[in-house]
């Protein structure tokens, strides 16, 4: 007897986890291409929205138009990947309600980004809209990492636990990292890469402290990044000392490495007066660091109950 049509297109947990992982990396990738649009001065390569020009959906044949139009086209790839993660949650067997709810956030986030991107173009890359565009991407990545983490684990699997101080320290990394990224977007919004240089458009910058705005926001961003780096290293040492497994500390190790590289790149771009290529690398590393930070929180898990001793890890 032939298999019912409704059951032919089902996903095993392993295949669904792969779909979710692809969605996560496409969401990360679109952040990198979006940053490339800005540092190449192509933000208004398509000066209208939803059309690319006043007359056409397509770009004019010039470099900056192709860069901006290409980034818009990549959004459709990201949208398809996110929609697949959501629809796949219904076709996964066994079906899980938590994956469906988290999966729904991804396409909704992409739609919100498309709308916000439209306003960003219509208001000529106003700093507030550009900053919000990047920050919304970071919020969507929170949902994507949570979905990825759950999709790679069984529904009845016991959640990870770690020392109370370590677990709460990991959670404290999230707001500190978010504030640091916010300060970074402000630094970019006050800097020379407004996104309209390539097309000759004059873009408003953040100037709340006059000519000193850029120096001020860079200094605040540097202080926050230093604090974040020191906190991450201290947490890594504490986690190893208090019995966290290598599997639990691996994402935190990546956070420390990426922050060290980020510090070197940030110092270099400041000394070289913010060349576009290094600014792009800095923004790229920020997105990757954020993803690693989110995985660190998930890996270290919940705090152990008061007075509970951590069970020793099984021998390899």
Care to describe what's here?
The protein is mainly alpha-helical. The chain has helices spanning 13-39, 63-91, 97-122, 127-151, 164-190, 213-241, 246-271, 276-300, and strands spanning 161-162, 302-303. It has two domains: 9-153, no CATH class; 158-310, Four Helix Bundle (Hemerythrin (Met), subunit A), CATH 1.20.120. Strands 1-2 form a two-stranded parallel ribbon. α1 runs antiparallel to α2, α1 packs antiparallel against α4 and α5 runs antiparallel to α6 (213-241). The longest helix has 29 residues, at 63-91. Residues 311-316 have low confidence and may be disordered.
Keywords summarizing the entry:
mainly alpha, 1% strand, flat, 2 strands, 316 residues, Four Helix Bundle (Hemerythrin (Met), subunit A)
The outline comes out as: flat
CATH architecture of the largest domain: Up-down Bundle
The radius of gyration is: 22 Å
Helicity level: 55-70%
Q: Strand arrangement, largest sheet?
A: 1-2
Q: What is the name of the CATH class of the largest domain?
A: Mainly Alpha
| SSE succession | HHHHEHHHHE
Main pleated-sheet profile: 2 strands, parallel
Helix vs. strand class: mainly alpha
Write down the overall mean pLDDT: 87
* Beta-strand percentage range: under 5%
Tally of contiguous helical segments: 8
CATH names the topology of the largest domain as Four Helix Bundle (Hemerythrin (Met), subunit A)
- How many structurally independent domains? 2
Q: Which residue ranges are poorly predicted, with pLDDT under 50 across at least 5 consecutive positions?
A: 311-316
* Alpha carbon gap, first and last residue: 47 Å
Number of strands: 2
């Amino acid at each position: 007897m032939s298999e019912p049509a409704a059951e032919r297109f089902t996903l095993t947990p392993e295949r669904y986890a792969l779909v979710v992982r692809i969605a996560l990396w496409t969401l990360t990738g679109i952040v990198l291409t979006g940053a490339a649009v800005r540092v190449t001065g192509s933000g208004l390569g398509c000066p209208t929205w939803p059309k690319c020009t006043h007359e056409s959906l397509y770009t004019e044949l010039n470099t900056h138009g192709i860069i901006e139009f290409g980034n818009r086209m990549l959004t459709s790839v990201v949208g398809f990947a996110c929609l697949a993660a959501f629809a796949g949650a219904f076709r996964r067997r066994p079906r899980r309600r938590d994956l469906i709810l988290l999966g729904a956030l991804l396409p909704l986030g992409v739609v919100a980004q498309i709308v916000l991107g439209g306003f960003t173009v219509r208001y000529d890359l106003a700093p507030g809209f550009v900053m919000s565009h990047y920050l919304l991407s970071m919020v969507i990545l929170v949902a994507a990492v949570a979905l990825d983490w759950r999709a790679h684990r069984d529904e009845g699997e016991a959640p990870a636990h770690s020392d109370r101080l370590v677990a709460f320290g990991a959670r404290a990394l999230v707001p500190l990292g978010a504030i640091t990224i916010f300060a970074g977007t402000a630094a970019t919004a006050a800097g020379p890469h407004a996104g309209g240089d390539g097309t000759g458009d004059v873009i408003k910058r953040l100037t709340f402290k006059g000519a000193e705005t850029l120096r001020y926001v860079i200094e605040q961003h540097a202080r926050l990044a230093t604090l974040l780096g020191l906190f991450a290293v201290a947490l890594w040492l504490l986690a190893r000392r208090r019995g966290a497994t290598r599997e639990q500390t691996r994402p935190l190790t990546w956070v420390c490495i990426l922050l060290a590289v980020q510090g070197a790149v940030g110092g270099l771009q400041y000394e070289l007066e913010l060349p576009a290529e290094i600014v792009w690398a800095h923004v790229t590393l920020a997105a990757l660091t954020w993803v690693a930070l989110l995985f660190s929180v998930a890996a270290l898990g919940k705090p152990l109950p008061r007075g509970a001793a951590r069970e020793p890890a099984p021998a390899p």
